[in-house]
Amino acid sequence: MSLDTPADLLAYDRAHVWHPYTSPTLPAPVRLVTGAAGVRLRLESPDEPSTEVIDAMSSWWAAIHGYRVPELDAALAAQTRDMAHVMFGGLTHAPAVRLVERLVAMTPAPLQHAFLADSGSVAVEVALKMVLQHQRGQGRPERTRLLTVLGGYHGDTLGCMSTCDPVGGMHTMFTGTLPRQVFAERPPAQGADAAMVETWADGVRTVAASHAHELAGIIVEPLLQGAGGMHAYDARCLQVLREVADEHGLVLVFDEIATGFGRTGELFVSGGTARVTPDILCLGKALTGGYLTLAAVLTTPDVAEGIAASESGVLMHGPTFMGNPLACAVALASLDLLEARDWRADVARINAGLRAGLEPLRERPGVADVRTLGAVGVVQLDHPVDVAKATDAALEEGVWLRPFRDLVYTMPPYACGDDDVAAITRAIGRAVEVA
């Protein structure tokens, strides 16, 4: 059939294309994107003229520089003249080596070894394997479970799902069929008093002590839980997790796939204001500025030596597109751009605009909470969002939002100007009205 018009494309999409978290038989409506530039997407529909809308989601938090970025376009084009891909087994190439050198230099000093994966979920799967193999190399093969906290989200593949919240998370239907991990309470919210933090810490210490004989590691999203509820928590909790890991010989994993590269106001939470460095660090999403899928898992010499001492002697993982040259080249250009711009000032400016625009919504009926952290703004409702109505209302304000559960939120590109941020907060206000 012909797929030449927006109507044709949308009709075929509805009949045959499966989108994230949608029914194959009753698909949710989608919008047709025909181009993107700066911080805007161009949408086409069968019945209306094309429109441009601000992407307040950074394409699921990845496109931190926006779209059609000249420096990233040029890096991608230049790499195609050498090679688009080459297997990483037994071979290497300059973009991968240079990217690892940059990541090692940018992250806390103990993190010296990097594994280049091909998506965030795969990065977490690799991290879980690292934890288990390290414990085997230490002569503790009985240690096979992970300690984590309620409210977390670490990806959609099987190992990742086992570390997501088994009660309030997206994967509750799989509870009982996945590996059974150990869960502590969700950390208290940012700004909690010392007594609340200490009560939570006592609970974590108790859980860890009772399961220490079977625990291999701890995995958390540091400071900000993403798809589990956009919950920002107190940085002192990370210090507690580091102490618990050290006390019981556990490998501490920070999943910074969402928080890395400046999103919280720190380049990385790891080694940031909390002064806590994990044993394993997972990065992704913004690593390539949203151009191509790429992730990285960094770890310490101690963990690497433990893996080498396990019975295989090698890390048992190797994705086909590991270290893809195109992705590595554009990631290097993205890191160049991030370092060249005053990203800290951009994130602080966006935060100020989000706070100014969203704080008044706290008084609206149906609003349970308003919170911001770095370039993240969240309005939590006291009821589930009507996603279709909220999306339509935001689009009427010229903004693309993707609410979920009881949340209307934004993670805009750092390239957004003050007027863009103001438009985003107005759109969130409209979405809240109808949601």
From TrEMBL:
Entry keyword Cell membrane: no
Q: Where is this site: Participates in the substrate recognition with KAPA and in a stacking interaction with the adenine ring of SAM?
A: 21
Residues carrying N6-(pyridoxal phosphate)lysine: 285
Q: Which reaction does it catalyse?
A: (8S)-8-amino-7-oxononanoate + S-adenosyl-L-methionine = S-adenosyl-4-methylsulfanyl-2-oxobutanoate + (7R,8S)-7,8-diammoniononanoate
- Main localization, broad class: cytoplasm
Which segments of the protein form a coiled coil according to its record?
Answer: none
Which InterPro entries did the record assign?
A: Aminotrans_3, Aminotrans_3_PPA_site, BioA, PyrdxlP-dep_Trfase, PyrdxlP-dep_Trfase_major, PyrdxlP-dep_Trfase_small
Positions with a binding annotation for substrate? 60, 153, 285, 318, 402
Task: Cite a single GO MF annotation.
Answer: adenosylmethionine-8-amino-7-oxononanoate transaminase activity
The enzyme's E.C. designation: 2.6.1.62
Q: Does the keyword Glycoprotein apply?
A: no
Q: Which UniProt keywords apply?
A: Aminotransferase, Biotin biosynthesis, Cytoplasm, Pyridoxal phosphate, S-adenosyl-L-methionine, Transferase
Pfam name, any one: Aminotran_3
Q: Where in the cell is it found?
A: Cytoplasm
Record-stated family: Belongs to the class-III pyridoxal-phosphate-dependent aminotransferase family. BioA subfamily.
Oligomer and partners = Homodimer.
| PANTHER family from the UniProt entry | ADENOSYLMETHIONINE-8-AMINO-7-OXONONANOATE AMINOTRANSFERASE (PTHR42684:SF17)
- Entry protein name: Adenosylmethionine-8-amino-7-oxononanoate aminotransferase
